[in-house]
Give the backbone structure.
Amino acid sequence: MSTSHPLSSAWLRLSPLVFGLVATLAGPWPAARADGHVQAQPPFALAGQSIPAGQRADIDIPVAAGASDPATYVPVTVFHGASDGPVLALTAGVHGYEYPPILAGQQLLTRIDPGRLSGTVILVRLAHVAAFEHRVPYVNPFDRKNLNRVFPGKVDGTQTERIAWALTTEVIRRSDFHVELHSGDGAEWLHAFAGIYGGRLAAAQYAKSRAIGLAFGLQNVVKYSMETQAQVDSGRSLNRQAVADGKPTVLIEIGENGRRDAVFVDPIVKGVDNLLRVLKMMPGAPDPPRADIRWFDSTADPTATVTGIYAPVATTGRMVRKGDLIGTVTDFAGRERERILSPVDGYAMYGLAGPPVRAGEAVVTIGIPAKGPL
């Protein structure tokens, strides 16, 4: 559907500039001496290694073998800046079939200069090595668990749980800010969006999270309101682990269907570049937030009630009305079993591209428009 849809005028809101938040985001860093020079910061320790100021280190965080599955590791790169500043964690590859964030991380290896950096960047280049190597969407090939549903993990759990524990203790709890980089998995279409975590249990972090999310310049922005502990705990994701640990955290989703095109990779790299300027971790003026942001304050997830072959009406971001046909499910003999309709007016942001679908699976996520900027 085109942007001339009658809902669109209520959705396109001017976003207030966030530069008033930059001082808050940047904190008290860097510390200047009486002569005006910036103090060099002490070494940064991670996974038993010490990284001097102004240096980069490539580190494999070890994950020991379990009772029924093998050892693995989490490859990270630490850029420890020449001068003091915040610690930013960037995590890619929690789902090993989501390639754009992983490939963007490879580009960032040569773009982040620790000699010019204020603060520290922990870049998780590939959180889920086994899923990547086995080309498995969503889950771990050994224990069949979804890494993004088991945080904080367990030091003595299955491989997925042990990876989660390593990420929680070595990355999230070592950082001041967190950005989780995702894309549409192997059979998921997706219109790029930023998810900013707020609500009662993340209210203290929301202003910082908001500025971080808007730094990526995406038109679609969802506020995920964490109002109850059950929301944080149920199938806890890496973002919700960051909420539990009191960290400003943002979800960035760019890319779809397991593709690795530059059109998906480049905006992630550009967004990180701009974020480092917003945080005053790198020199230069940041780009302002875009003026045509579509704000959403909740989502709806219509699901299939039968297993079969799913045919979506469309696989692009679009406005829908309550009652619009989202897709149909047929059985393996070609008989139509279900017609899935939109339960709300909203914007179809991402969903299954088909053809497989299982009973109970959400086939699309629909953003419900906010009344104004959040």
